[in-house]
Write a sequence for this structure.
């Protein structure tokens, strides 16, 4: 069965409003690896029967990358355009699989006229479970995993528990890296680094982090950010460990546990 | 003649506090060179944060060894300074241990407690010296710590040891007074040192006691005047610095009001694109987007620079620095302070006005290479025991680079034109944004 996805325009044409807007984000829409996370999350939404809409072709970059790179003009133009679109659809609640967009939409849009309740997908899935709309099968017993905190989810917005609680429901054994939660080490992608060569140094940040994770010999390194996913996937490949260790998003873990 | 010591003491105090006051006003003036920023909101949470982070040292003890040692010196410093009150009264009125007869047994207990703390402070300072000079812990030996910053740290520790030793020696000399001359006591720890003075006459002992008493108060006044020129000024500014620190989520960056106005105008369909701009105020400082120099930063960022004690926890947690990049958040803070001191000196020389010296914080102190190494991960702000925010300064400098100098790594220039043209960092058409729904 294909994905059940409706755009906000389609909802509006039916004269209805969905419960929540799923903000896909540029990575989630265009990056091949991130698209798998997007699809996994939609499968979960479909299983839980969530009525959600996407902006589809009306969505544009949130402006996070522009802002962190110092281009406040471009950020504001993106933000104000997106806010106009979302306000026209009377959007009140947003869920997104990208911690960067989560942070920007939640914290930086409100001063510009975009006041929404914004949730990271791990928080949103947690709520679905708490409301008995979704069950997670503990079918992944025996797997050893570690969780890498995305900076803009963890330190940036103090969300440490939601992803960990979800992961435990899948039956896996969660082991923590020495640098975790508040003291987590960045994957190296934030602040627009994802899109540029690193400055001269003696090591790549993603290798520093991946080596720490691989040191625990996990079956899976889990994260909650498309950029972290790319950086750590690259790190695992560079270490030639891709046959032993997978890199997955929390949404993919839940989807896999539930056989979606 | 008998009033001479009191007069000398009065002169010492007046000059000592006068000079200190002058230094404090200079720093205050420098901090206020920064732009306005309203942090008067949410005062109950601010007080709570200050109680926990500054007074309670909650972020210091994240590193247990350094944290515990620091806690000892901090508590010792605060409590032992209660004794300075007595020294002041004694010095001005020619009394000796004025509180002893008033407090009786409580006084003996208090001094015993201070002596105990004093010994702990000496041990902690010695341990700090050991960590810096013998163990050579990495973060105390990075490039920005060469020269004065390294010496500064040692000077502070040595002064503290000297001050505490003077106090103990003074009490010990008194403890050795022959029968008939006893004052206060018994004090346990100085009592252990007292035997070294055995056999000395009362006059000699009294002289030793006086020398130590004066050495202690002169040392305190010297230390007080050393502070404003040292990283050690954090003992004053840590409290307001935490009080005025950012309370919003770490991930949230400020929105530049000046840019917001321009963009709103651009996007307003009713705005007249040919309207003449309003008459500019000829006295207004030229508006810059982002920060090039210290005056473009806000006062909290400048206070951050004076509050930094160069412990280097930010730098040792910075992913860029860990992997050998030039960026060091501590250096950013030290650079801001150095440049601000230079700007302040220029203003002093030119009787209150700043004359452009052809230098600026950006480029002359902080290079674009350092700025572009930042991942904005907030490890530095999390690590700082006094809530300093180097990240906000890095971003303000980046803003200047990008918006005023159009200078950025070429890949980022491409990313920005992609966002402008097709609404994504990559070169994909916006029309393809929902293709993932049907692909598999």
């Amino acid at each position: 069965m294909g994905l059940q996805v409706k755009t906000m325009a389609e909802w509006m044409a039916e004269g209805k409003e969905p419960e929540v807007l799923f903000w896909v984000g540029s990575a989630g829409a265009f990056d091949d690896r991130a698209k798998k996370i997007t699809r996994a999350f939609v499968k979960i939404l479909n299983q839980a029967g969530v009525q959600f809409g996407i902006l589809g072709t009306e969505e544009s970059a949130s402006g996070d990358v522009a802002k962190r790179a110092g281009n406040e003009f471009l950020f504001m133009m993106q933000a104000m355009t997106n806010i106009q679109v979302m306000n026209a659809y009377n959007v009140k609640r947003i869920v997104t699989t990208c911690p960067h967009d989560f942070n920007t939409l939640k914290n930086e849009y409100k001063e510009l006229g975009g006041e929404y309740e914004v949730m990271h997908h791990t928080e949103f899935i947690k709520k679905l479970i708490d409301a008995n709309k979704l069950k997670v099968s503990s079918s992944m017993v025996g797997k050893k995993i570690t969780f890498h905190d995305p900076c803009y989810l963890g330190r940036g917005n103090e969300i440490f528990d939601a992803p960990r609680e979800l992961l435990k429901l899948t039956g896996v054994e969660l082991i923590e890296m020495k640098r975790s939660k508040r003291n987590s080490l960045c994957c190296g992608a934030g602040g627009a680094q994802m899109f540029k060569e690193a400055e001269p140094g003696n090591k790549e940040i993603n290798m520093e982090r991946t080596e720490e994770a691989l040191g625990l010999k996990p079956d899976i390194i889990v994260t909650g950010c498309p950029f972290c996913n790319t950086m750590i996937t690259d790190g695992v490949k560079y270490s030639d460990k891709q046959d032993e260790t997978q890199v997955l998003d929390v949404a993919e873990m839940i989807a896999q546990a539930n056989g979606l | 003649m008998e009033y001479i010591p009191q007069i000398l003491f009065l002169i010492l105090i007046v000059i000592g506090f006068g000079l200190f006051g002058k230094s404090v006003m200079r720093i205050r003036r420098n901090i206020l060179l920064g732009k306005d920023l309203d942090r008067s909101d949410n005062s109950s949470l601010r007080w709570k944060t200050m109680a926990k982070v500054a007074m309670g040292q909650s972020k210091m003890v994240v590193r247990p060894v350094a944290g515990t040692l620091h806690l000892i010196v901090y508590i010792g410093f605060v409590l032992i300074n209660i004794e300075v009150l007595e020294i002041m009264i004694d010095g001005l009125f020619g009394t000796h241990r004025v509180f002893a007869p008033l407090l009786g047994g409580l006084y003996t207990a208090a001094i015993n407690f201070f002596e105990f703390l004093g010994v702990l402070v000496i041990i902690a300072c010695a341990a700090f010296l050991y960590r810096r000079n013998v163990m050579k812990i990495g973060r105390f030996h990075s490039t920005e710590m060469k020269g004065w910053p390294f010496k500064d740290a040692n000077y502070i520790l040595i002064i503290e040891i000297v001050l505490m030793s003077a106090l103990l020696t003074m009490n010990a000399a008194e403890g050795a007074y022959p029968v008939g001359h006893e004052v206060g006591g018994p004090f346990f720890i100085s009592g252990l040192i007292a035997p070294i003075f055995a056999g000395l006459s009362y006059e000699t002992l009294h002289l030793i006691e006086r020398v130590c008493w004066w050495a202690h108060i002169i040392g305190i006044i010297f230390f007080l005047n050393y502070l404003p020129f040292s990283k050690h000024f954090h003992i004053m500014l840590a409290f307001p610095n935490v009080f005025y620190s950012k309370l919003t989520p770490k991930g949230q960056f400020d929105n530049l009001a000046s840019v917001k106005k321009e963009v709103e105008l651009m996007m307003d369909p009713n705005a007249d694109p040919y309207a003449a701009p309003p008459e500019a105020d000829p006295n207004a400082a030229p508006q810059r987007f982002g920060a090039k120099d210290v005056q473009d930063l806000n006062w909290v960022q400048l206070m951050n620079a004076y509050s930094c004690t160069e412990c280097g926890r930010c730098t040792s947690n910075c992913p860029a620095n860990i992997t050998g990049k030039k960026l060091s958040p501590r250096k950013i803070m030290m650079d801001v302070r150095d440049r601000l001191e230079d700007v302040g000196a220029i203003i002093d020389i030119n009787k209150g006005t700043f004359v452009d010296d052809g230098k600026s914080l950006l480029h002359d102190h902080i290079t674009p290479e350092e700025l572009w190494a930042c991942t904005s991960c907030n490890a530095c702000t999390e690590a700082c025991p006094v809530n300093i925010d180097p990240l906000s300064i890095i971003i303000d400098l980046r803003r200047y680079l990008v918006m005023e100098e159009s200078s950025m790594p070429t890949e980022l220039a491409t990313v920005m034109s992609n966002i402008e043209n097709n609404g994504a960092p990559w070169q994909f058409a916006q029309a393809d944004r929902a293709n993932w729904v049907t692909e598999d």
Notes: Chain B is about 60% helix and 0% strand. The two ends of chain B are 99 Å apart (CA to CA). Residues 4-31+63-243 of chain B form one domain.
